[in-house]
Amino acid sequence: AAAPVRLWVKTEPFLLGALPVPPPARLAPHYLRKMAAYVRARAAEGCFPRLSWPRWRHIACGKLQLGRGLAWLYFELFHSLLRRDPPCRLEWAEAEAACASVDELERQRSKAGAPSRAGRARGSPAQPNLSLSPLLFLLFLYVQQVNKVSLRRSLIGEEWPSPRTKSPSLTGKSASENKNWNDQDHRAFMQSHLSDMLELLLEPEQLTASFHSAHGSLVSYEAVCALGFLIEGSVNKSRTVHPLHELALWHACHGQNGYSEISKAFSFPKLERWLRSCLTTNPFGMTACLKSGKKLAWAQQVEGTTRRAKIACNTRVVPEVFPMVIMSQVYKQTLAKSSDTLVGAHVRIHRCNESFIYLLSPLRSVTIEKCRNSTFVLGPVQASVHVHSCDNVRVIVVCHRLSLSSTTGCTFYILTPTQPLILSGNQAVSFAPFHTHYPMLEDHMAQVGLATLPNYWDSPMLVCKESGDASVSRLLPPSDFYTFVIPFEMEGDTTETPGGLPHAYQKVLSQREQKVQIWQKTVKEAGLTKDQRKQFQMLVEKKFYDWLVQTGNRQQLDSLVPPAVGSKQAAG
Fold first, then answer.
1. Which residues does 66 contact at the CB level (< 8 Å), separation at least 6?
2. Euclidean distance between the first and final Cα of the chain, in Å?
3. Are residues 225 and 296 in the same domain?
4. Which pLDDT does position 467 carry in this prediction?
5. Does 246 share its domain with 341?
């Protein structure tokens, strides 16, 4: 009888690790097989068992013909997947911020690694370790294929909605529309490409001349440990999550997966069959969250609309897995939360219109899709914020990475230690410095390992050349810049924008403040009678009210009045 093991594909390598854009042609499986052979053959040159940045740069730029910026992007993106402690993230941020030039930064990246034996003996501080496991990195690069657009599949219709591709969805979208989130796609990808990925992990003597496996090929224990980057599981229906290698070594599974106590390795065909037979739906993924997750009554149901606001989160939360919150169709309202449910969560916000959404907790990742005319104020995001197919939205956030695709007229007020990624299909993007605060902000930043420096808010990277030239984005003119006040009371020590503002923006704010003071002085010295002051106040209030209506700010103020949202809801 088969051992009662359930395996599933992890969410994070796809959700956070797969860049939401078709991969370069030179990252195709054929080239990754050549790279696998190359790194193993050059173990003495710093390629194996740890791959340093200079060696990857040489492979990426010299062999795979990738640009240096893209090479670093993949290298750094892989690192952001690893659960490094916040102090390690802050240590690297400090080292990078201290670099005064591009050349100095490149030297810092090249030397970053474990200290030498002599350095350890002297007690010198460790450099942030930027080397990585080449086996895990090869799998990470292979996962980029999940967003490859297949011409054949497009022609026969599988890239488009069909009864066969539908999955349970809060949003009614087809499974193929967001492959980074959809665990059904992740499972199908693993089933389709498992053989290729296992071959990447084989030792050279187990491969044929064309880099493929033979019937007698053996898979090492180290290779199965590496595959644990993508797969984990449990025994029976236990709530305990186990790494893949622990389950594979379980004695009850040896008959199915071909593990030999003598060779300390697995039979390739048996291991592949065992993995395929045990792969099931991720119990912590989007499908489970939508099907059986806890429904949250965070949003109002607006009368007179057919839209039903839906918010769901995982019911099964375990320490090894980040929680998930999915929010859809919040319409014409303000929603404010600072909640344990959000801490460390992957958040997906979908089809929210004409709303103001405040999620003031430290988050793992945020995806904002198909939203319009809305403002999103987010707590610090440890990994990434991805904004897709949105019109006229404002996003205000401190995050490790921001990426955009198919957006129009959106403005991003950001503090980020990596270059914002402009993918395909964007128009009229504006970037501005992060310009707000709430009392717990700096505490939350420390929890996720984000510092105020370095800050690349004004240095976007155009990842897709087909997305046009640099004119798709601009820096917000200081004359259009205003601070943003978060209108909720909370406990905490932060009283100003972390890191301050760039001089040009601060200067404009100071000039406006000066005009207000001059105006107040003029009114005070005008010598108005009591009736004149009353009449003047009424006139000013009317002008202000007209302005509120014209700008849409009236709706925002109205939606702050209880029972919609009060200052206490933010603590809910």
1. 24, 26, 60, 74
2. 49
3. no
4. 46
5. no
Does residue 349 sit within a domain?
yes
pLDDT surpasses 80 at 158: no
What is the phi-psi region of residue 370: left when phi exceeds 0, alpha when psi lies from -120 to 50, beta otherwise? Answer: left
Element (H, E) at 402: strand 394-405
Q: The domain containing residue 207 runs over which residues?
A: 6-111+130-147+178-278
Q: Are residue 332 and residue 212 in the same domain, yes or no?
A: no
Q: Are residues 274 and 296 in the same domain?
A: no
Per the domain annotation, does 20 fall within a domain?
A: yes
175: part of which helix (H) or strand (E)?
Answer: none
Q: Determine contact, residues 357/373, Cβ cutoff 8 Å.
A: no
- For 50-90, give the secondary structure using H, E and C: CECHHHHHHHHHHHCCCCHHHHHHHHHHHHHHCCCCHHHHH
For helices 86-97 and 441-448, give the axis angle rounded to 10 degrees: 100
pTM here is 0.89
Q: Based on the fold, state whether residues 219 and 366 are members of the same structural domain.
A: no
In contact, 255 and 15? CB cutoff 8 Å: no
Predicted pLDDT at 531: 87
Same domain, yes or no: 325 and 228: no
In this structure, which amino acid lies at residue 332?
Answer: K
Lowest pLDDT segment from 112-126, 239-253, 357-371, 468-482: 112-126
Residue 156 lies in a domain: no
Q: Are residues 238 and 337 in the same domain?
A: no
Q: Quote the mean pLDDT of the chain.
A: 86
DSSP characters over 245-285 = HHHHH-GGGHHHHTEETTTTEEEHHHHHHHHHHHB---TTS
> Distances in Å between the alpha carbon of 387 and those of 107, 195, 231, 262, 365?
33, 33, 27, 51, 11
CATH number at residue 453: 2.160.20.70
Name the domain boundary from 246, 278, 310: 278
* Domain final position from 221, 247, 278: 278
User: Per mean pLDDT, which range of 59-68, 325-334, 538-547, 553-562 is the poorest?
Assistant: 553-562
Helix boundaries (H) for 352-470 = 441-448
What's the one-letter identity of residue 228? G
Q: What stretch of H or E contains 400?
A: strand 394-405
Q: Give yes or no for residue 64 having a pLDDT over 80.
A: yes
Residue written as token pair 């080239």: 31
